[in-house]
Amino acid sequence: MNRNIFLLFLFFSINSFAQTREYAVKVVGLRVGTIYATKTNLGDSVSYELKSKVDVNFLVYKLKVDYHVHSILSGGKLKRSLVSVESNRGNFLTDTKKSKEGYDVKSVQHEDKVNKKIKGEINSTFASIYFNEPKAKDKVYAEYYADFINITKPSPEYYKGVLNDNVDEYYYKNGELIKLVKKNKITDMVIEYQEPSNKKVRK
What we know:
Structural class: mainly beta
């Protein structure tokens, strides 16, 4: 099931252009992981991919996650997304596929198994907003949760995203994400863009 989408990605990548952005994941100021966000132009389609490894080990908070998101949009509409998560809390998977009426979703999450249909079109996903600044009142599809993040702009400096008990703050520069703050009762997790160390960067 997941092999087809990655074979498709490899096939188009031969003659495609990829842009990768590195983000540091920090908790209480300490770097605990890295996220690589990649945007690849595939002819009429665009691939968005997130790869992250996070290892937090405090007395009151422990989290170890290997997280991979891969979404393909064509004509500004989501065609397929696949999420795989390996963590100290278990292994999880969410698969979203385009159908005639919308999308078919199969998901094994931390607290539940989800099989459902989503009607209508999906124009924006969590992976895609690393490269595309959203608009206030947008609904952004969270690939892992198979649900929508409601976007507002309470301040000129940032956007706020809410999905159930999950609250994020998104900061942008020139239309691309430079900081994401994931609010938490214990301590916030901050994801910050890292400028390339070398001066010659392919754009």
